[in-house]
Write a structure and sequence with these properties.
- The complex is a heterodimer.
- By secondary structure, chain A is of the alpha/beta class.
- Chain A has two domains: about 170 residues, Rossmann fold (3-Layer(aba) Sandwich), CATH 3.40.50; about 40 residues, no CATH class.
- Chain A has a five-stranded parallel sheet with strand order 2-1-3-4-5, sandwiched between helices.
- The radius of gyration of chain A is 19 Å and the shape is globular.
- The termini of chain A are far apart.
- Chain B is an alpha/beta fold.
- Chain B has six helices and nine strands; from the N terminus they run E-H-E-H-H-E-E-E-H-E-E-E-H-E-H.
- Chain B is globular.
- The chains are: A alpha/beta, B alpha/beta.
- Chains A and B meet through helix 3, helix 4, helix 7 and helix 8 of A and helix 3, strand 5, helix 4, strand 7 and helix 5 of B.
Chain lengths: ~220, ~180
């Protein structure tokens, strides 16, 4: 089978999205042909659509940006619609991930992905919405043990052209509202902001962290 | 009132709505400070997700482009309004790419609002967030999803409140005036 992976991350090859799909393609059968396209190459969208036109299934992955899909992803989807005859009746899968820990913040855009699939006459074969993805920038693979296993499992669903497994979907999409300990850390200690503060210190701009460069300009 | 309008209308097929929006903005500017930006005529890069606006040059994107003009209006804005047709089930990519580039107005930090993680604001204002969705060819599901995403954005941008309207070219002016008279 021939699978198109549409990477909708503005960070492209260096993205968390690419790391997740890497876990999936690593365990795929050698007969599975994967074509990866990166939506951050915005000048190539029309050409990329041609490249993926004959695929058997489509996996689209993107991070939550200002409460929906990134602008580059939306642009890519618009070009897909302009060429909808390529995609009619084809299965499509989605993975949406957010830096925010709560996967519930992606519910609205998940609704969009279902609507988009039906607008294009595609078969919606499932979607993951995962919170807390910014850890993917720093943490090693073993930190994601069970999640990585689940992604490897659903890679098999795609290869068999069947909908995502409902148990794995529920596991990967589970909502993690900040509990009592997390609320304490966030409200009272600010420890959760250490990563940002350290990065700004390293860049020598910590004392400018509250700058308002456009004020009275 | 300071009113900032992001016009995400594409090049072709929306001329009548575009004209009606221009007329509405001009009419409003008799009484208010109105800045309208027509994104298709501007050079605005897509966000590349580098977080430079948070950790390298706090509050400022690495790109020098039309966003500087838009963001320089933001700290005094009372109304931040997006105007867009529905395309491929949602607001246009012109609208969305502009929205992405607005993250310098919040801080990288996480705080809890209504027991949900959000970013604190960088500037002092809490603009009313509004969206005007053009009615031509707009199906109910796509409109509702676009409306909801503005409610979500308002949480993250600390909006004073939101308004969301499906507008025809005949009533854009009336709808805008009503919303802005109700601060």
């Amino acid at each position: 089978m021939k699978l198109a992976i549409i990477n909708g991350s503005p960070r492209g090859k260096k993205s968390n999205s690419n790391r997740i799909t890497g876990w999936m393609t690593n365990v795929m059968d050698s007969d599975t042909e994967v074509i990866k396209v990166f939506a951050n190459e915005t000048s190539k969208h029309e050409k990329q659509i041609e490249e993926i036109s004959g695929c058997d299934a489509y996996l689209m992955i993107f991070p939550l940006y200002t409460d929906s899909m990134p602008g580059i992803t939306k642009r890519f989807m618009e070009v897909m619609e302009d060429n909808r005859e390529y995609f009619n009746e084809k299965p499509i899968y989605f993975i949406i991930h957010s830096g925010f820990p709560e996967s519930s913040q992606s519910i609205t855009v998940e609704g969009f992905t279902k609507n988009f699939s039906s607008l294009l006459g595609m078969k919606y074969y499932g979607g993951i919405r995962m919170g807390g993805s910014e850890a993917l920038q720093v943490a090693p693979d073993n930190y994601f043990g069970k999640k990585k296993d689940a992604y490897e499992f659903i890679a098999g669903n795609i290869e068999r052209l069947e909908p995502f497994d409902s148990e794995k979907t529920a596991y990967l999409s589970r909502n993690r509202k900040p509990g009592a300990i997390m609320r304490f850390i966030i409200n009272k200690t600010g420890l959760n902001n250490m990563y940002w503060n350290n990065t700004m210190k390293k860049n020598g701009v910590y004392d400018r962290r509250f700058d308002q460069p456009y004020k009275n300009s | 009132m300071n009113v900032l309008i992001i016009n995400g209308t594409p090049e072709k097929g929306w001329e009548e709505y575009d004209k009606a929006l221009q007329a509405a903005a001009e009419n409003l500017s008799d009484e208010h400070e109105v800045s309208m930006f027509t994104i298709r005529d501007m050079e605005i890069n897509y966000c590349r997700g580098c977080f430079g606006c948070w950790v390298k040059t706090p509050g400022k994107c690495v790109f020098r482009d039309g966003m500087d003009d838009i963001l320089s209006k933001y700290p005094n804005t009372d109304f931040l309004i997006f105007a867009t047709p529905i395309k491929t089930g949602f607001m246009t990519s012109l609208t969305k790419k502009t929205m992405d580039r607005m993250i310098p107005v919040v801080l990288p930090y996480i705080e809890l609002f209504e027991n949900e993680c959000h970013h604190p604001k960088r500037y002092d204002n809490n603009p009313v967030l509004g969206i005007l969705v053009f009615d031509k060819g707009a199906d109910a599901d796509s409109v509702e999803i676009t409306f909801k995403s503005i409610d979500r954005l308002s949480l993250n941008f600390h909006g004073k409140r939101t308004f969301r309207n499906l507008v025809g070219k005949e009533n854009i002016m009336e709808v805008l005036e009503n919303e802005i008279s109700n601060y």
